[in-house]
Write a structure and sequence with these properties.
351 residues, alpha+beta, 5-stranded antiparallel β-sheet, 3-stranded antiparallel β-sheet, 10 strands, 42% helix
């Protein structure tokens, strides 16, 4: 374990000269005393690590010294070659660059390590989108990715889902796009809003679905670029806030009565955060074994699509507008199927 930490420490110093003992301790999850001992161990092993004092001090490698990629172990190379999602790179417009980078990396590896890396590609493939949906690349994703990559301040226009069946509301925000996340085939941008006067940060963190971004432009009257917070960790931020973000999308509540079968099927058709809240609100079964609960949903359209999969095992009680949609659908189905084969074909255009 210490050997792996020493290698990581050498690579950190090589990639970010001037890291202090405190910074290295945070990155390596050890105390500063351990960092000092590890630096001495690297020196004894022939790695020219040196420590400098002052404002521009920290740990450095001797000028001209570089660690070699040929020190990669087969398992490390396998992991490295698995670290990219082909579909995600294609969406971001980076597939050509990734292919070139892999070729350059392959050329530097020892033959034994190169064979391990190529073997992993033949055996494992990462496919992010879910089943039974054709993933669509949001039109503005490549441009948004360029803004993220270059730390460019942007004005983003966004179609916010309406509440209670109301149409989407258009909003515009000036923001610092910090990162992009691909979750179950859907792209999200994590951004920090700018204050209203355009000077400095402080508007708070927000997450937006990229497929709802309707326009993207340079921020008006502001600096072209923003200064990225060096301590921001996209993966940690997403892990901490994605659950709250999922809940924030649930803007509509539907009261529904379910059979025991429909209740058991609910987790298969509704997102996790909504299921958790719905089950917490569920009543005790009535005399017929039916359970009534309040189901949070992103919109009435989403609730309609989800609950339609449960057929007659789900009855919408409220809101009235959604219940009316199911009643009209039920009448159309009864007209189509209720009078014998082919008898209802003429009513299909009315559904």
């Amino acid at each position: 374990m210490r050997a792996a930490r020493l290698i990581r420490m050498a690579l950190l110093i090589q990639s970010s000269p001037g890291l202090t003992a405190a910074a290295l301790a945070r990155e390596l999850d050890v105390c500063e005393r351990t960092v000092i001992r590890d630096a001495q161990a690297l020196q004894e092993a022939g790695v020219p690590v040196r420590s400098e004092r002052g404002r521009t001090g920290g740990y450095h490698l001797a000028p001209g010294y570089r660690t070699r990629l040929t020190t990669l172990r087969p398992t490390e190379a396998e992991t490295l070659f698995l670290s990219g999602l082909p579909s995600a790179l294609r969406d971001l417009g980076l597939s050509d660059a990734a292919d070139t980078a892999r070729l350059k990396l392959t050329a530097t590896l020892l033959p034994s390590v190169r064979a391990a890396a190529e073997a992993s590609v033949r055996r494992f493939h990462l496919d992010a989108p879910g089943w039974f949906r054709e993933p669509a690349t949001p039109e503005l994703l490549p441009e948004l990715a360029r803004a993220v990559w270059s730390d460019r301040l942007v004005e983003l226009s966004y179609a916010r889902p309406g509440r209670g069946g109301s149409p989407p509301a258009a909003v515009s925000r000036v923001m610092e796009p910090y990162g992009l996340v691909l979750k179950a085939g859907t792209w999200y941008v994590v951004a920090r809003l700018r204050t209203g006067d355009g000077g400095g940060s402080g508007g708070g963190w927000r997450t937006y679905r990229v497929d709802r971004v309707t326009a993207l432009a340079p921020a008006p009257g502001g600096p072209e670029a923003f200064v990225r917070d060096a301590h921001f960790d996209l993966a940690a931020h997403w892990e901490a806030r994605s659950y709250d973000f999922a809940r924030a999308l649930l803007r509509t509540t539907v009261t529904v009565r379910l059979t025991s079968w429909g209740l058991g099927r609910l987790p298969a058709v509704v997102d996790g955060a909504a299921v958790e809240d719905a089950l917490a609100s569920a009543s005790a079964p009535d005399g017929a074994g039916l359970v009534t609960l309040d189901l949070p949903a992103e919109s009435e359209d989403v609730a309609y699509d989800q609950l339609a999969r449960l057929g007659a095992d789900a009855e919408v009680l409220a809101p009235a507008s959604l219940r009316a949609r199911f009643r009209e659908r039920a009448q159309a189905l009864a007209a189509l199927y209720g009078t014998g084969p082919g008898a209802g074909a003429g009513t299909q255009g009315q559904r």
